[in-house]
Amino acid sequence: MSFGAHPSLCSGLAPQDDGIERAQRQGGWVYILLCRDKSFYVGSTSHLAVETRVAEHNDGKHFGYTASRVPVFLAWSKWFDDVADAHAAERRLKGWSWAKKHALINGDEKRLLELSKRRAGQPADMKAPLTPTRRQLTVEFQSAGARHPEVRPGAKRRGAPKDV
């Protein structure tokens, strides 16, 4: 297994480094760590050096997933000029399978594209029929003359004023 940084992949997620001093930006890193058990951890940080965050994981400063899987190694990272873009990319990468993250790390664009195809083979908007709105369901239900099974004709509603 070869793990190297390939920041050119995911370039569509946000603009790449444009030469502006990083200290002047409000950006952040998205990174993938290889854990001792060969699992991946995806995270983000606003530290100027992503290695600082990796060291914090290895020093046990962050409880959670990596705490029981140290040592961890930086497998991939990418700088984003806007921290909001970094967080969006982090959320997207967290949803990826192990195989897809592995392809990203190794720079295997062919495999990455293969793993990105929908398994159902059809666009998301074509997969499920449109769900009727609540109003459409109500109109359809009432037009059929049906009543809710818990509502009996002549039954008093809870909280309704009592007859005197």
Structure overview:
This protein has 164 residues and is of the alpha+beta class. It has a domain of 95 residues: GIY-YIG endonuclease, CATH 3.40.1440. 32% of the residues lie in helices and 13% in strands. It is built from six helices and three strands, in the order E-E-H-E-H-H-H-H-H. Strands 2-1-3 form a three-stranded antiparallel sheet, with helices on both faces. Helix 3 packs antiparallel against helix 4. The longest helix is centred in the middle third of the chain and has 12 residues. It is elongated. The relative contact order is 0.16. The N terminus is likely disordered.
Question: What are the defining features of this structure?
Answer:
elongated, 164 residues, 3-stranded antiparallel β-sheet, 6 helices, alpha+beta, GIY-YIG endonuclease
